[in-house]
Design a protein that fits this description.
It is built from ten helices and eight strands. It is α/β, with parallel strands linked by helices and about 220 residues long. The protein has a single domain, classed as Aldolase class I (TIM Barrel), CATH 3.20.20.70. It has an eight-stranded parallel barrel, surrounded by five helices. Strand 6, helix 7 and strand 7 form a beta-alpha-beta unit. Helix 2 runs parallel beside helix 3. The longest helix has 19 residues. It is globular, with a radius of gyration of 16 Å. It starts with 10 loop residues before the first helix and ends with a helix.
């Protein structure tokens, strides 16, 4: 059995920067493994496989290929929603929503070394998350997004700023994030940016990642 890469890494180093969510419904014309490798070549080290429409067999096949690609690229793979799938492909962790398996039970399955992320959409959910033991939280949507038509109410940059003081957990902002908005989001307290469409729908995925990396580097210099 393959050890999760998180065993050999500093989690504080991992849980920041760009977090690319790989959703085949957003870019159906390209294999997810190719998208992962192109983004990894530009420095992305954290990926999530999210595929709401796949059968379990389809998801297993895709997740297995992504796990192999992530390992070859020196990146981590998180599986959305499904602890069983994450364990089956020996992923580095799982990302859970508010209606998914409670984190306490997920931790029993996943063990202490694999990452567990939790989606949050309000001040109260962020407060509650602190006592449940995730390794990081996603917070949003910061802006409106077409990726999820049934998304929770927009929280905005001010909402992000208001929850930053409530937790020491790493926060990944999500929802409608663009290169232009990235610096303000990081300045408001996000440790990282979870992006989907802004990268996956770009004609050149590598160039889109580079643009985000430049924006993050600029904000880091300005904050020093």
């Amino acid at each position: 059995m393959q050890e999760p890469a998180t065993i050999h890494c500093d989690r504080q180093t991992l849980l920041k920067g760009l977090y690319l969510i790989l959703d085949p419904s957003v870019r159906p014309d390209r294999p997810l493994t190719e998208l992962l490798c192109e983004a990894a070549a530009q420095g992305v080290r954290l990926f999530q496989y999210r595929d709401k429409g796949a059968t379990m067999q389809e998801a297993y096949r895709k997740a297995t290929a992504l796990r192999q690609a992530a390992t070859q690229c020196g990146a981590l793979l998180i599986v959305n929603d499904r602890c069983d799938l994450a364990l089956a492909v020996e992923a580095d962790g799982v990302h859970l929503g508010q209606d998914d398996l409670p984190i306490a039970y997920a931790r029993r399955l996943m063990g202490p070394e694999r990452l567990i992320g939790l989606s949050t959409h309000s001040i109260q959910q962020v407060r509650d998350a602190a006592g449940t033991g995730p390794d990081y939280i996603g917070f949003g949507p910061i802006f409106g997004t077409a990726t999820k038509l049934d998304h929770d109410p927009v929280v905005g940059i001010e909402g992000l700023r208001s929850v930053r003081s409530l937790t020491e957990l790493p926060i990944f902002a999500i929802g409608g994030i663009t290169v232009a908005s990235a610096p303000n989001i990081v300045a408001a307290g996000a440790d990282g940016l979870a992006v989907i469409s802004a990268v996956l729908k770009a004609p050149d995925v590598g160039a889109a990642v580079q643009a985000f990396q430049r924006a993050l580097a600029t904000q880091k210099r300005q904050s020093q």
